[in-house]
TrEMBL record:
Name of the protein in its database record: Aminotransferase
Record-linked InterPro entries: Aminotransferase_I/II_large, NHTrfase_class1_PyrdxlP-BS, PyrdxlP-dep_Trfase, PyrdxlP-dep_Trfase_major
UniProt xrefs under PANTHER family: ASPARTATE AMINOTRANSFERASE YHDR-RELATED
Cofactor(s) annotated in UniProt: pyridoxal 5'-phosphate
SUPFAM superfamilies xrefs: PLP-dependent transferases
Family: Belongs to the class-I pyridoxal-phosphate-dependent aminotransferase family.
Organism: Georgenia daeguensis
Gene Ontology molecular functions: transaminase activity
Amino acid sequence: MALTRTEVSTRARAAVGEIEAVTAFFASLREMEGRDDVLDLTFGNPHEMPLDGLVRAITAHVVPQTVDWFAYKANENEPREVIAAALSSELGLGFAPEDVALTQGAFGAIALALRLVGDAGDEVILPTPGWFCYAPMLRLVDMVPVKAPLAPETYDLDLAAVERAITPRTRFVVVNSPANPTGRVYPREQLDALADLLEAASARNRRRIWLLSDEPYRRIRFDGVPFVSPAACYPWTLVDYSYGKVLLAPGQRLGYLALSPLLPVPEREALREALMPVQLAMGWGFPDAIMQYAVADLEDVSIDLGELTRKRDRMLGALRSSGYRIGRPEGTFYLWGDAPGGDAARFVAALAERGVYVMPGTLFDRPEHFRISLTATMDTIERALPAFDDVAARLVTSS
């Protein structure tokens, strides 16, 4: 029998196409493997031994205490109670344990949100520049990414761009604050204005537009910048969170999806009832047993924000002194700036020749920008700075 098309599904091919630039970048990093002279400033991975508090929390729960210690775990009561109490205190909202679904990181929470209220063909408005995994995740569930640019220079929410992107098929608008890659934290007035816009558009469409608040960097903020969750401004908000950022342990998959307590009771109850069945249908989308046991111990564990601030200030000051145009992030652990000469691919390649690796803005739909991860050690940063100086001088001169 002759085959008429590839056996890879249409949705899988669409997802592959959306993420192709990222997978190609992954492949390019293989040349770093086994080299001692590499200075890696690409992804938010740990470069030092794990936090003591994380190790203690996991170790404390490895040894079984009951026969069902490693039995199937769904949304267990104790971690949901801990998270609901912490969320209520942190965000000033009355979360109940039933509003929380435990997931395998923010990836799992976003996937759950899409399946919970989204349908095939629905459109989702994404900020650009923004995280490069939103679009492929949407393609894999037959939803449609629609990109809306953030405001130039400030990277504030561009409400006019969001409004232009809304159609009768719009189901979600994604807000990421603190934002990857820009580090922007959106103030209350912008979120309130967005809420008003979505309320009016929902009424016009006669169909609810949901807001997905992507908050994995919520606890990583600088200079006392306050945080307001969209869940406090717009009742039809789903909040996703990951512990992997604040613990700097992205390989230990722990996160949650939370329903805004401001949701009207009928919608809130309907979503509560759907959480566990949908997670089961997704392939048992719950964190492993040990990570659920550890939640209470992990709530107060964090990377050293003081040291992170010092690394931000050191690199930001040095690069600006060398002529780089770099934004001052209010949150996350990234720096985002203009590539010297205006070509990120050329700039990144020139740095790689010097053994310094950063992320090109092409992965974020911005081919003239680049991103630096500050999770590297201070020693790595100091050793990388001369390469930044030399490459910038060479590219600016030749452009």
